[in-house]
Amino acid sequence: MKVLKLAVLFLASALLCACEGNGPADIPDWKDFVEDKPGKDDVPEVSKDKVPSDMVLIYGGSAHRNPVKWTGNYLKEYVIYTDRSGVKHWLFDGFLCLEFMYVNVPTGNKTFITGYSYNGVKLPSATKYEWQSLIDYYFEIDGGLNAIEKAVELASEEMGSSPKTKRKVVIGIPEPISNEYYSNTSSSTVYWGKLNGKELDFSLTSDRLNACKWYIDEIASRFKAQKYKYIDLVGFYWVAEKATNTRDLMNKVGEYLNANEFTFNWIPYFNADGFSEWKKYGFNVAYLQPNYFFSDSVPEGRLDEACDYAKRYNMGMEIEFDGNALEANGKGYKLENYMKAFKKYGIWESSPIAYYQGSWALKWLRGSVNSEYNQKLYHDFCEFVITRPYRTKDDEQN
């Protein structure tokens, strides 16, 4: 079996990436990355069958989501794609399941990550109750991961056969936030709940780690018991997008995951704190957020910078868009620019890609049958995904 190691390094200084006129350079296939000499910062190699080529982010768990519950029919459009000629193709081979907050519930609004607010109010940190509720959401009988399983089953019926490989699932790990109120470092650190009769104190790295281990074990055990036919739990994702508040913890979580044959995944934002120290944190796979789509003040050159990081340091990348890509909202050109840049710099050809699409923007594009622009953008995007040499060269998606 081929093994691979995804090295993800970002440059901390914008001065280092301000080179003008940079064009695409020779980019090694990330599967052929030359290993560093062994050292304290090395992370274990990862087999290719544990890394999706095209992983879509899907949010769920909080009552503010619409729809709150996933279903097989709803998710099927993320599993297969019908092209302009009516031919069906497998679409995304990976699903990143994650949630950042737990709101609109009788027990009160909470956050799974430092810094989140809801309706202008800074949220208190999630407790064991919310962590458990998120686990339960993923294993609802007719929702959660069962909905992804059902979606692949329905897609297989339409395709006439199952995909050659199971669809890969990666699940977000809530950040064990040190204080009950992240904005008040004097607030309690003993708020999360008990494990094995012991009240955890999140001022202790060991207790925060134990909470993560409990969460991982619960999900792994319940996933195994389901005996899924079409999906495989390959790894977990660290929802904190910078290292600031978990610098002492991430590598320990990574070691635990690797010991249990799971990958440790990360998608830090552009120039996030700690991005250049990925090895210390034990991540096996990481993707760079260009953060170009959302703000009009970010120039198209951001994509050149981000792609330059990727080709230099052999990292995966994230394509970003949301409902503003629809014709009526005027930002579809930005999604087009991502696709152009990723082709120009070889990301499309030789790197794994994660896809942020807001809530369900891809479905909205597909459903906008009265907009010629939206239909073209939808088909162009899906064809960008299904024709990638990175995924087709090993004939895994056909």
CATH level 3 topology: TIM Barrel
As a whole number of angstroms, the C-alpha radius of gyration is: 20 Å
Q: How much beta, percentage-wise? A: 15-25%
Structural class by sheet pairing and helices: alpha/beta
Q: Architecture, according to CATH?
A: Alpha-Beta Barrel
Highest CATH level, the class: Alpha Beta
N- to C-terminal separation?
Answer: 20 Å
Task: Explain what the structure shows.
The chain is α/β, with parallel strands linked by helices and 398 residues long. It has one domain (3-392): Alpha-Beta Barrel (TIM Barrel), CATH 3.20.20. Helices cover 30% and strands 16% of the residues. It has helices spanning 72-75, 128-138, 144-159, 205-226, 250-259, 301-313, 332-344, 347-350, 361-367, 372-386, 389-392; strands at residues 3-4, 46-47, 54-59, 80-82, 88-90, 94-98, 101-102, 110-111, 117-118, 121-122, 167-173, 194-195, 198-199, 231-238, 263-266, 285-288, 316-320, 353-356. The strands form six sheets. It has an eight-stranded parallel beta barrel with strand order 3-6-11-14-15-16-17-18, surrounded by five helices. It has a two-stranded antiparallel ribbon with strand order 1-2. Strands 4-5 form a two-stranded antiparallel sheet. A hairpin with a 2-residue loop joins β12 (194-195) and β13 (198-199). The radius of gyration is 20 Å and the shape is globular.
